[in-house]
Amino acid sequence: MDLNERKLKILQAIVSDFITTSEPVGSRTLSKRPDIDLSPATIRNEMSDLEEMGYLTHPHTSAGRVPSDKAYRLYVDQLMQGSDLPEVNKQEITDRLHKDADELDQTVEHAAQLLSEMTNLVSFAITPNRSESKISYINFLPVDENSVVLMIVCEDGKVTNSAIRMNAPYTEENLTLMSKVMTHNFKGKAVSAVLTENIASMFESDMQALSGLAGSVVPSFMKTLEKMLNVDLYMDGYSNIFRLPEYSDVAKAQNFLETVTNKEQFTNVLVNRDNGLAITIGDENSEDLKDCALVTADYKVNGKLVGRLGVIGPKRMKYGEVTSVIKYITDNLSRTFEIEAPAEEAEPVEAADNDEQ
Amino acid sequence: MDLNERKLKILQAIVSDFITTSEPVGSRTLSKRPDIDLSPATIRNEMSDLEEMGYLTHPHTSAGRVPSDKAYRLYVDQLMQGSDLPEVNKQEITDRLHKDADELDQTVEHAAQLLSEMTNLVSFAITPNRSESKISYINFLPVDENSVVLMIVCEDGKVTNSAIRMNAPYTEENLTLMSKVMTHNFKGKAVSAVLTENIASMFESDMQALSGLAGSVVPSFMKTLEKMLNVDLYMDGYSNIFRLPEYSDVAKAQNFLETVTNKEQFTNVLVNRDNGLAITIGDENSEDLKDCALVTADYKVNGKLVGRLGVIGPKRMKYGEVTSVIKYITDNLSRTFEIEAPAEEAEPVEAADNDEQ
DNA sequence: TGTTAGCACTCTGAGCGAAAGAGTGCTAAC
DNA sequence: GTTAGCACTCTTTCGCTCAGAGTGCTAACA
Hints:
The structure is a homodimer.
Chain A: H1 5-21, H2 27-32, H3 40-52, E1 56-57, E2 66-67, H4 69-79, H5 87-98, H6 104-119, E3 122-126, E4 135-142, E5 147-154, E6 159-165, H7 172-186, H8 191-195, H9 199-206, H10 211-229, E7 233-236, H11 250-261, H12 263-271, E8 278-281, E9 292-301, E10 305-314, H13 319-336
Antiparallel strand pairs in A: 1-2, 3-7, 3-10, 4-5, 5-6, 8-9, 9-10
Helix pairs in contact in A: 1-3, 1-4, 5-6, 5-13, 6-13
Chain A binds a DNA duplex (30 and 30 nucleotides) through helix 3.
């Protein structure tokens, strides 16, 4: 038995019908569609075949057919027609993303917000991983006699800072010296590379005058670098799930919310997805998301750093629309954080990208 | 008719019974309690009186009594007995709050997490408002030829930074000069005070050499200062509401989540609450929270800055337990961010408090 | 005079069965 | 190969009854 033209057509009709109604699709309903010119009985035969082939299931004998994960996969890969975003929406995306375009974090948060509004699903966005970002400055500033602030600036403009409680007394000169020596040592190196270096030994050789401070500074420096690698997760539209009949059961809604509000775990899921546009459906996800579908896409910052943005919802989602919204937003974000007029320079000029407060 | 001893006792029994069961309380149930030695009929008479006085309501004729908002208020003010936190919980709070005590934001986030776990309610925490914090440094760092990073450090160690896109070319010397002049001008002034000054004029008089840069810098500087005033909101335990029978109705759960996930609006509610321990019940809240109760308390940072932490849940909450957990956590937080061993100095030494990236 | 027992009454919620509706699968005819 | 027809299945909804919980009132009691 093979998937001939007619079976595909029927399958497509069933999937798209089910996506909009969330009700099992019966043969009579299908036969009424203008694009399908077959009697209910014929359709029933085909549906029976499709079920045997694993594309459809049956909640119970006297119910219509429901697409299986396999059917959604086929639908997404071959059957679905990409929808073009209405001009109004495009305009809105552009407008709203450019409103606070000088703050990466804020813009990304807005992007997530926008996405949940436009898809009526739960949306999320993660900021780029900076393990390959290069260090640009290291700076110690006095706060009071016991504590200083350490700030590390990356070439892409990202700033991370921490408070450090000093064990030994320090002078402003100490701090300036330390800032200079460390900047000199690490400038131009990637964050991940520095994290594997033996920093303590550097203090011994280069900075004997400061070795008394090393005990306070080294662990904090490492911690701050690690903080630089943290990926922020923004989510929006939690309450959208209540609009979906699949979550009218409170237990299911609870389950979903629990999974999705576990930031650490969920960030992990997102970080480990395929690059580019990625759609995973049902089984293709981990156990606790097996009733969901995720659609994600990447955005670029300075043409290098890669963040990610997407939605999570029921397998029955409007893949065409959702995909085009996500693509449009990520493209827009990438353009927003694009290098501006590199013009004559060979080395790329980093665009404004910086952290939140 | 007045609230005599017996009526109070009955009312207290009804409220505490309803809090644990969420079922309307009948006269027979009450008469079985060891602390109430009255026949159901007598209790019925008293309940009828209490209803007339506005302390009880009746879902329908043949149901037990339910406390009114007025009853909860009385309960909280007079009838409830404060519970003492078990030693295990105290220990856990202390342990978990001190794990990352060098990062205010992170600690506050952990506190919210802890609170939702211990109360099984939705918890929240806001970071302190810094409008009265004093500025300590202002620093411009070059990023690339078009952009610089501006960072403002407060006396309490809080750092805020922004990327600035420059309209005119700049030199490192320009930045250093600008940093010095601005630090000199604003050091020791409160953020809110600086925000009302006429910064632009300062550029004209003090910094003529830099006036070409002022156009880029002044608006960004103001924006960054405003960012310094932003209060961060952390929430946790959203999915706890599904455990409560009052939210077994999906529409109610949706409503609740929508109200509470509106960060801006909800932050506003929190910022405008009374200082110290504040409990608001039903009507006492805004319209969209009229079925809820909020309990909040303040914590202090450096004995000055004040943040806030609390829970939101149904009016039927264990006020005693909740209050003692919140108090214990806020006290603990205040101690964590306390000035450490000021010893000989007159001027208070600021403890480590700094921002999240 | 306050308290209590008794009883009729009310309202809710669970349980049950009937009936409607949707849809299938099979058979037989086209 | 397609279709009409029909018996059959399963779910959902509706109405009904009945048990249970609780009240309010009255009358008796201490």
